[in-house]
Design goal:
Elements: H1 3-12, H2 23-31, E1 41-45, H3 50-63, E2 68-71, E3 83-85, E4 88-89, H4 92-111, H5 119-133, E5 138-142, E6 160-163, H6 171-174, H7 178-186, E7 194-197, H8 202-215, E8 218-221, E9 227-233, E10 236-243, E11 246-253, H9 258-278, H10 284-293, E12 301-304, E13 308-312, H11 317-330, E14 336-340, H12 348-355, E15 361-364, H13 375-383, E16 390-391, H14 395-404, E17 411-415, H15 418-431
């Protein structure tokens, strides 16, 4: 099997839909020798901040000299981003070879009366098989959707569980209330596990603690209030915080936004539990260097300057609020052009209400997905709040129009869908890399 054939097979499995539950993934992994049972796993669930928090944890462990697998979804530019070791994507040849093995097992399952694995079950199995094959020291495993019935929750004995901010998303699959969403996220908690939690709404804490009590798990709430921001600009952030009576001074991160400082503290809390409860050798210097070197594409990421072109994965209310706070902080006195593209199953009205009042000019476009709203449909939603916009379905043309009509001291922000910003990232990095737009 070649790489292109592997992608065809993986993408083709989308026809089996989304099926929450662990029976199928359990059978598939059993046929593969249960590779996940031999891995030390840090399991990360939440609605927002999973990727950034996972990346902070991975970078710290890597700086401590460990080989660390990072499993995330979706990808921005290339599929292999989803399965990484120490920042390096899985090789295309390895992906193709392992996919062929998975395909053989999937066919056996169907022949013996099981359902065909879903796309995400296939990807999860590829990741576990690859990480076991490469004998990594740790796997930082990001939940795909929800948690309780997500394929990744086949893990029975994680080294650590982490729950990032919980808010409404994937309402059709997970439910339309915070209580229902929190129930799914809390499902990653296992018997006797350690659980690091980003401070949540009271009702979410109640559900997490109830699950933890039933499982005799130990909960650690990250102290994000006990911090002092020293510097915060588009060049990066510096801050102090206290953790277990230990002071961390002049901590630096390159990721922007107050929420990323919070995510860094959650990640450090997780590392602290690994150090103290599991005797994992990680120095304070490893923590400083790991946080500083963390990169996470697509989250208030500045691609060029003059004009400033930014992409961000804000696609729900919490994500939009984080981006709005960053806009107010870094670009309050700047004219902002906003290029928005969203999927039909996301809270477009909520995102529009939060972000559009902060913009001078709005361009709507269409992400490359059959689940997308058209540019005209988005434009009509924006009209309802009394704003006008320019509808351009083609993303490349939308980028060109936004750049051509913006002055050097202005800001252009692309957001609303990870599908869209990945394409934007590729186009901008290729199209403008030889022009007078410093990357």
């Amino acid at each position: 099997m070649k790489y292109a054939q592997a992608l065809d097979y993986i993408y083709g499995a989308s026809r089996f839909g989304i099926k929450l539950g662990l029976n199928n993934i359990s059978k598939l992994l059993e046929l593969l020798g249960n590779p996940h049972e031999e891995l030390k796993i840090i399991h990360v669930a939440g609605t927002n901040g999973k990727g950034s928090t996972s990346s902070f944890i991975t970078s710290i462990l890597k700086n401590a000299g460990y080989n660390v697998g990072l499993f995330t979804s979706p990808h921005l530019e290339v599929f292999t981003e989803r399965i990484r070791i120490n920042g390096h994507n899985i090789d295309e040849e390895d992906l193709a070879r392992i996919t062929a093995i998975i395909k053989e097992k999937a066919e056996y399952m169907v022949q013996n009366g099981y359902n065909h694995p879903t796309q995400f079950e296939i990807i999860t199995a590829i990741a576990f098989y690859y990480y076991k094959e490469k004998n990594v020291d740790f796997v930082v495993l990001e939940v795909g959707m929800g948690g309780r019935y997500d394929s990744t929750n086949v893990v029975k004995d994680p080294l650590l569980c982490v729950i990032t901010p919980v808010s409404l998303d994937h309402k059709d699959e997970l439910g339309d209330t915070i209580e229902k969403i929190a129930y799914h996220k809390a499902g990653i908690i296992k018997k006797g596990s350690d659980v690091v939690v980003y401070p949540q709404e009271a009702v979410t804490h109640e559900i997490i603690y109830k699950e933890a009590d039933e499982k005799n798990a130990c909960v650690y709430i990250a102290d994000i209030d006990n911090r002092e921001v020293i510097e915060s600009s588009i060049e990066g952030q510096k801050f102090n915080f206290k953790l277990d009576n230990e002071i961390y001074e002049n901590v630096e991160i390159s990721l922007l936004g107050d929420h990323q400082i919070n995510n860094a503290i959650v990640a450090t809390t997780a590392i602290n539990v690994l150090r103290k409860k599991h005797n994992i050798n990680i120095s304070k210097e490893n923590i400083y260097k790991g946080l500083k070197e963390t990169k996470w594409a697509g989250r208030i990421e500045i691609l060029t300057k003059n004009p400033t072109l930014i992409i961000d994965g804000a696609h729900n209310e919490d994500g939009a609020n984080s981006l709005a706070r960053a806009m107010d902080k870094y670009f309050k006195n700047k004219d902002v052009t906003f290029v928005l593209g969203m999927l039909k199953d996301k809270d477009a009205d909520g995102v529009i209400e939060i972000l559009m009042p902060r913009t001078k000019k709005i361009i709507t476009t269409k992400p490359n997905s059959d689940r997308s709203l058209t540019a005209q449909e988005l434009k009509e939603k924006i009209n309802k709040i009394g704003r006008d916009s320019i509808a351009i379905d083609d993303i490349s043309k939308a980028i060109e129009y936004a750049v051509d009509t913006s002055k050097e001291d202005e800001v252009v922000i692309f957001a609303g869908s990870l599908y869209m910003i990945g394409e934007v990232r590729s186009i901008i990095r290729n199209k403008y890399k030889n022009k007078k737009l410093p990357l």
